[in-house]
Amino acid sequence: MNETMEQLQPVVASASAPEKLLTVENVTLSFGGVRALSDVSFDIRKGEIRAIIGPNGAGKTSMLNCINGFYHPQAGRITFKGKTRQRMRPYDAARQGIARTFQNVALFKGMTTLDNILTGRTLKMQRSFFWHLFRHGPAMNEEIEHRKYCEEIIDFLEIEHIRKTPVGRLPYGLQKRVELGRALAMQPDLLLLDEPMAGMNLEEKEDMCRFILDVNRHFGTTIALIEHDMGVVMDISDRVVVLEYGHKIADGSPDEVKADQRVIDAYLGVLH
Fold first, then answer.
1. Rounded to whole angstroms, what are the CA distances from 4 to 97, 142, 199?
2. What average pLDDT does the segment 105-121 reach?
3. What is the mean pLDDT of residues 89-114?
4. In this predicted structure, what is the pLDDT of residue 198?
5. CATH number of 17-97+190-272
């Protein structure tokens, strides 16, 4: 793997206690008279896969929106990489190292797979708009380097055969993979995945699970994901936090959460 991917080299596990990459403390979010989140606290450790689960309306997506600055909670605070902030815009979150995929695919449907993934490199581009407008000199060299990086992401996600295909023509499962590639192009410290396997068949889910694990284990990317498939959550997550109607009702390892009676009653009743 060439030097453009040096940020994505395998990470050697440390014997020391895991570092907290992000901490959510007593976050409360309301929309008029509706409280989406009530005094929620949890943390995400560096290098882990952290699942956020709960029934529909539990506040899971609202929590991701607070983490990446789309929503601003009325109370509580969020600390990322040791810096506490009360308000942050999504573009600030992106600059600080938080990338995001969405519950509903949000791609540029008329653009190719490669061009969509290249948009994830925008914040990494240093040359001025003038240079990029004429695609000359330093801007051309910069674009070549970014394209090399994106081509390696395409190889990693095994989507070489659709690199020049407009994403609007792709089946849903491949569109979700392209969206993951665009997020990876940002070289995030924290990757937020909102239902990455929604609407997929079994084979597509298996592929996506494999890619998520590879991103985490080989690239060292910390991942927080929302997912309704409990088989997936229990198989790939290091820790799970459970929300119900905006309240945290459980937090721990997959086995601990699966055995928690409050979770069984609220969400996993089929296991009771």
1. 17, 11, 34
2. 91
3. 90
4. 86
5. 3.40.50.300
